[in-house]
Specification:
This protein is of the alpha/beta class and about 375 residues long. The protein has 2 domains: about 150 residues, VC0802-like; about 160 residues, Rossmann fold (3-Layer(aba) Sandwich), CATH 3.40.50. It contains 10 helices and 14 strands. The strands form 2 sheets. A 7-stranded mixed β-sheet has the order 2-3-1-4-7-6-5, covered by helices on one side. Strands 10-9-8-11-12-14-13 form a 7-stranded mixed β-sheet. The longest helix is centred in the first third of the chain and has 20 residues. About 45% of the residues are buried.
Length: about 375
Amino acid sequence: MQFFAPCPQGLEQVLSKELEAITNKAVQPIKAGVHFQGDLQTCYRVNLMSRIASRILWQLDSADYRNEQDIYNTTLALPWHEWFSPKLTIRINLAAIKCPLRSLDFITLKIKDAVCDKFRKTTGKRPSIDTKQPDIRIHGFLNANKFTLYLDTSGDALFKRGYRKIAGEAPIRENLAAGILHLTNWQPETPLLDPMCGSGTFLLEAAQIALNIAPGSQRHFGFEQLKTFDSDLWHRIKTQALTKQQPASQLSIYGSDLYGYSLAHARTNLEAAGLIEAVHLKQANILEISAPESSGILVTNPPYGIRIGESNTLNTFYPELGNTLKNRFSNWTAFILSADPALSKTIRLRTSRRIPLFNGALDCRLLEYKLVTGSIKN
């Protein structure tokens, strides 16, 4: 079986390492995702254990095309009735790069017609369409001359872990947060602080990593709806993962926020995940806090104009943040996600790395600062 795991741009290499560790097989990273091979067990394990993938797509076919009829014919030829029941609802998702055909909406309709026509011919029934909460998601991708079809084995996107009760203002997605933690080279024995934690995404992901909690252990998946679903195999894989996780205990993971309502959101989410005992929370202004331990990693997704506040306010805030980090976090390494190059420069700290990342559609940089005496620019 051929699979494709999309991910946020910039995380392709860390996703490759993660998938190699899960599958024990070579993988092929491309822009915004990773190709890999495997069987049903591979599919189940990756869905359950990947912290960085957005979805796991099972490739059904890939063929050349010239027009919409070619796309219809390729779709019609597939044995859809062998994969799922016409009683289930479906949704078609289509993406394209350099596609010469005019209307993606019309192509989406042709794919839907082909799936439904195949069901009518083989079963006398056809699935209904549900664009909001479908049972089955079918993904199509077009480049200049190739059409590829996938079945989504994940269902809801994998960043929906199943525990977040409150998203809060402009939350960072869980798989991006997990990927950033990988990029920082953070290890569970190293103290971690998010001083602008919002609804607590970095804290939740770090605690799950430290306690070896499979990110998909509290949710369901699209593959459970397929006729190929092996419930005994899935039960064994999930049980094995659950036996490896450690009980919640206090970790060197710290979160704070200026706003009490944000901290309440973080507390609610941590409680829902059973991790409230693992994380230290307190209400505090980032410009007034001190390092909770002598060294560690600070990681945060601060406001950058687009998300919250005005640029003038942030032009004042960022130099003060730089001073706080230099004066109060010596021997720490800070990682700050920013979508505004002009604002990031006003921190007045020397970056040791600038890692390109996308936070949704926002072109960002993960800025690394090694906080030692004299690291502030004159």
